[in-house]
Amino acid sequence: MIDLQQIHKTFGAFTALDHVSLSIPRGRMVALLGPSGSGKTTLLRIIAGLEHADGGTIRLDGQDATDLSARDRRIGFVFQHYALFRHMTVADNVAFGLKVRPRDSRPSKSEITDRVNTLLKLVHLDGLAGRYPTQLSGGQRQRVALARALAVEPRLLLLDEPFGALDAQVRKDLRRWMRRLHDDMGLTSVFVTHDQEEALELADDVVVMSQGRIEQIGTPADIYDNPATPFVYQFLGNATRLTATVQGGTAHLNGWQLPATAPDGPAVAFIRPHDWTLEDAATGANATLRHASVLGSSLRLDVTLQDGQDIEVDIRRDAGQAVPAAGSALRLTPNRVAVFPATA
Amino acid sequence: MTASPPLQTVQGAGHDPAPAPRRRSLLRRQVIPGFTLSMGITLGWLSLIVLIPLAGLVIRASGLPLDRWITVLTDTRLLAALRLSFGGALIAALINGVLGLIVAWVLVRYPFPGRKLIDAMIDLPFALPTAVAGIALSALYAPNGWLGSLLTPLGIKVAFTPLGAVVAMVFIGLPFAVRTVQPVLEDIDVELEEAAACLGASRRQTFWMVQLPTIAPALATGVSLAFARAVGEYGSVIFIAGNLPRVSEIAPLLIVTRLEQYDYVGATAIATIMLAASFALLLVVNILQKWNRDRQGGTR
């Protein structure tokens, strides 16, 4: 169990983390998701002890670790570019964390060898023990870095953009494999990513960050279905941002009257492209089609609403269904709308 | 993720139309233009500046009859001079290796006021006429000099002893050690240290097990350059060493002495021995480094 309270960090005039609190239960895989500069990597480095927070506390398994050095935290860290020791073989890299232990807690030579072999088998690198890092592919290096971090049996595994430096196919394979490894070994892990797909696919919990603050914490389904802030709406998945006006608990937008909790005044509404229903235009059109394109099983419509705002609509398409012509009148109804006061 | 077989294996060699004649392929197939011209200049220049003088030396020496060689080689004065030149240079190079590493470490890793100035001063031994350095050092270390007057009561004599020669060799070799290690230290990834720390390594373990091995090849180059420079050093050493035959006389000085006595053959013989010894030592260092590079997978 990792518990962060009010972590604050500034670099000169730049606030990297603005009083962030977060707790990570044992056994979970947590994604820190956000655009670059959102503070996610800084947070990861503070958890690892590689960076010192200006304020706030860190507790690891109930014990105050705020002033504990990286060396004493027993937290595994996999760097984005792996940071493998180039002058050491794969086996020596993995054994490093065991070899540097003080003599009284250091395993014997044969125990170290056994443990290294087990780990290399686990990451499917047995047979490459004698290679040097420069002789490996990107995916292999990443697995060496992982094995090296796991060798010391960390209570928490941190991964900084773990798939960032790999090409698309390798990335997909490694993702699945990593999730399985996490479950099989009963790890607790936190990874940083700017790729929402990666976060949603891999994590138990997603922490969405922006400008040094946590915007929302929740399961992938939670975050996608019920984004808490306009930022999360825009950052996660595709959503069209529309302007509306709220009056007495109702948002007025292009002739629709939608329930809203936002206070009276100007507001922004977010609607995902697949949250629209296309109805018979004969009952009164409220939009015009600009362009339609077939995306396999769905139809992507670029539409201009009557009030002049442009939206994107995805609807299911059955084989052989006619594609509407550009310029045709449509009648659309939104299924799900989130309305926020227009502050930003 | 197995790699697909390389393309060449797909095309059966026998079925292909005969490849175009590959004569001059080395020259013709270069992607970067100007190979012929630049290679010609390189070889011509190297021959003119390095190879022809050295070859001349060897040819002159090879005319020497065997008994003269034996006389030259068994001359105790020469052996003592060679021992001081090579032994002193080795000691100086090792000292420069340790201190050069520390200097480079401080210059790279810690920002402090005056760093730029100190960084610039490192090059002074490069630029200073060596005779000036020698005079300055001997004035400093002479029994009545600033440092010499402090050391003499302790029974340490520097000026006009072999120790003086080593001091001068350290002085002129320092920039070689610092300047070869510095860029490598600058390039060392901080993440390596952080990774070591996360794995539980102490600062000391990180230095010995991670950082030092990473810079070792550069350090070895620096030490061998400092060594080579010290072996050939003449100007600064002769002012401080005192040049007592068989005690504090260096081999290059012995060559000059022979020349002054119009003993060109003797001078050539000593020069040839020094050339051979230096060449052999540098070769060994280079082979060691190549071995080290290959071991680490080549690309660095």
Commentary on this structure:
The complex is a heterodimer of chains A (344) and B (300). Chain A is built from eight helices and 20 strands. With 344 residues, chain A is of the alpha+beta class. Chain A has a six-stranded mixed beta sheet, with helices on both faces. In chain A, strands 13-12-11-14-20 form a five-stranded antiparallel beta sheet. A five-stranded antiparallel beta sheet of chain A has the order 15-19-16-17-18, with no helix packed on it. Chain A is elongated, with a radius of gyration of 25 Å. The two termini of chain A are 36 Å apart. The mean pLDDT of chain A is 90. With 300 residues, chain B is an all-alpha fold. Chain B has two domains: 20-63; 66-299, MetI-like fold (Orthogonal Bundle), CATH 1.10.3720.10. Helix content of chain B is 72%, strand content 0%. Chain B has helices at residues 25-28, 35-62, 66-73, 76-109, 115-121, 124-127, 130-141, 148-151, 162-187, 190-198, 203-232, 235-241, 251-260, 264-295. In chain B, α9 packs across α11. Classes of the chains: A alpha+beta (344), B mainly alpha (300). The A-B interface holds A 48-50, 69-77, 79, 81, 83, 85-88, 96-97, 99-101, 131-135, 137, 139, 148-149, 151-152, 170, 173 and B 1, 189, 191-192, 194-202, 205, 209-210, 213-214, 216, 295-300.
